[in-house]
Design brief:
Distance between the termini: 185 Å
Order of helices and strands: H
Helix content: over 70%
Radius of gyration: 59 Å
Number of strands: 0
């Protein structure tokens, strides 16, 4: 059987005194530190999420700018290529025109030379025919 005596009261009083002392000196400070740590972890986690969102936003901006730069470079490349093709076409046309002009000038010069040679041959043929006729007839032909 259980005896209720003064020792039991001392044990109960000691238990409650120890409980209040441990509560003030150990449990409350430890719980406070754990709560602060949880707050710090939550704040750091929130800050990390904010930084992650900002990083994603900047990465998206970077990719957009990169795509814009690629598109501009492609447009510039096509423009320069088209300018080159236009310049090539212009140079070929100028060369064709110059060669056509040179050919026409050469033909005109040749025709002039042919007419000059024909005129000179006609005059010389008259002189040669008079000389041949004079030699054949053995007299001077007028």
């Amino acid at each position: 059987m259980i005896e209720l005596n003064l020792t039991l009261l001392y044990q109960i009083a000691g238990f409650f005194i120890l409980y209040f002392i441990l509560n003030v000196l150990l449990y409350k400070p430890v719980l406070k530190i754990l709560e602060e740590r949880d707050k710090n972890i939550a704040g750091t986690k929130k800050e990390a999420e904010t930084l992650e969102a900002e990083l994603q936003k900047k990465l998206l901006e970077y990719e957009n700018k990169l795509n814009e730069a690629k598109a501009k470079a492609q447009e510039e490349r096509l423009r320069i290529r088209q300018e080159g093709l236009d310049k090539e076409r212009e140079l070929l046309e100028n060369a064709r025109k110059d060669s056509q002009d040179s050919l026409m000038a050469a033909k005109a010069e040749l025709e002039k030379d042919v007419k000059s040679a024909l005129t000179q041959l006609k005059e010389e043929s008259k002189t040669i025919s008079k000389d041949i006729a004079g030699k054949i007839l053995e007299r001077k032909v007028a």
